[in-house]
Specification:
The protein starts with a helix and ends with a helix. By secondary structure, the chain is of the alpha/beta class. The protein has an eight-stranded mixed β-sheet, with helices on both faces. The protein has eleven helices and eight strands. β7 and β8 form a beta hairpin. The structure holds guanosine-5'-diphosphate (GDP). Guanosine-5'-diphosphate binds next to α5. Part of the signal recognition particle protein translocation system, which is composed of SRP and FtsY. SRP is a ribonucleoprotein composed of Ffh and a 4.5S RNA molecule. It is a peripheral membrane protein. It comes from Xylophilus rhododendri. This is Signal recognition particle receptor FtsY.
Length: 298
């Protein structure tokens, strides 16, 4: 479990965003806060969340009259954990049969991989899953999802070149008829230029609702944890268009900076159901604010 935390720390050190290094100074003074500001910004925390964390830290330090760097570092861990806490929420299934989960994300974010991981996670929890391959524009997407489906022994609906909304409708209808626990709808991350992605995704959402009044029960966005403020912009855009209920943040192993989660918590506190910490099927973790804060601080 701690392997990805090591890698996240390693990534932070590599990108120069090491927050821990700031606390090697013996004195708690304005220079330290300046260094901390730089380190937080380098770690992709963004201006607003960085400001919030620094203000919060100064308040905590004053309250506790802390003067030891290790004590101040612990207070920063508390401040980060408190900021991230609202993101810590589990994905709940079983309240509807099927629970319809629509998954969006720009190409390359790790959407297909995450759907594979999520399928395994659900299958391990004894849930039956039907996959809807509604990314009908990308030949490789259907193929890749097929590989995941085979590996997880789950059924898949939709073929390349089909209409994404029709595939989604069919999948939800089939999921209901066959009593599946979950229908996972994979959507396109990019479209032929004449089509507008958000409009197409909104159409899928409407059509899914036609197939089942209460669906979709979850609208997830997959974002690449390495893309910093760009990931935050994606969260804003997809949330405005679709009303997101959860996030999967991928690639938090490797060279990820991780601070983007603080920026998301500050601006759009949408639950992070899972984090991706590797390319393998089991490299999916539930998000824990305290653990993550600790990993960020190294
Ligand atoms: P999609 O275009 O959004 O469907 O993205 P893919 O699922 O095809 O993933 C793009 C690349 O990112 C692939 O090489 C994946 O193996 C890789 N990837 C996805 N998730 C993770 C992760 O959590 N960690 C790492 N290291 N790589 C990942």
């Amino acid at each position: 479990r701690s392997g990805w935390m090591q890698r996240l720390r390693g990534g932070l050190r590599k990108t120069g965003g090491s927050i821990a290094a700031v606390f090697s100074d013996a004195r708690i003074d304005d220079a330290l806060y300046d260094e901390l500001e730089d380190a937080l910004l380098m770690a992709d925390t963004g201006i607003k969340a960085t400001q919030h964390l620094l203000d919060d830290l100064r308040r905590r330090v004053k309250e506790r009259r802390s003067t030891e760097p290790t004590a101040v570092k612990a207070l920063l861990a508390d401040a980060i954990a408190d900021l991230l806490k609202p993101l810590e929420k589990p994905l709940v299934i079983g309240q509807h049969t099927p629970t319809v989960i629509m998954v969006a994300g720009v190409n390359g974010a790790g959407k297909t991989t995450s759907i594979g991981k999520l399928t395994k996670h659900l299958a391990d929890a004894k849930a039956t899953v039907l996959l809807a391959a509604a990314d009908t524009f990308r030949a490789a997407a259907r193929e890749q999802l097929g590989v995941w489906a085979d590996r997880n022994l789950v059924e898949i609906i939709g073929q390349q070149g089909g209409d994404p909304a029709a595939v989604s409708f069919d999948a939800v209808t089939a999921g209901k008829a066959r009593g599946k626990d979950v229908v996972l709808v994979d959507t396109a991350g990019r479209l032929p230029t004449q089509l507008h992605l958000m409009q197409e995704l909104q159409k899928i959402k409407r059509v899914v609702q036609k197939a089942d009044n209460s669906a979709p029960h979850e609208v997830l966005l997959v974002i690449d944890g390495n893309t910093g403020q760009n990931a935050l912009a994606q969260v804003r855009a997809f949330d405005d268009a679709l009303g997101l209920t959860g996030l999967i943040v991928t690639k938090l192993d490797g060279t990820a900076k991780g601070g983007v989660l603080a920026a998301i918590a500050q601006e759009r506190p949408i639950p992070v159901y899972f984090i991706g910490v590797g390319e393998k099927l089991e490299d999916l973790e539930t998000f824990n604010a305290r653990e993550f804060a600790q990993a960020l601080l190294g």
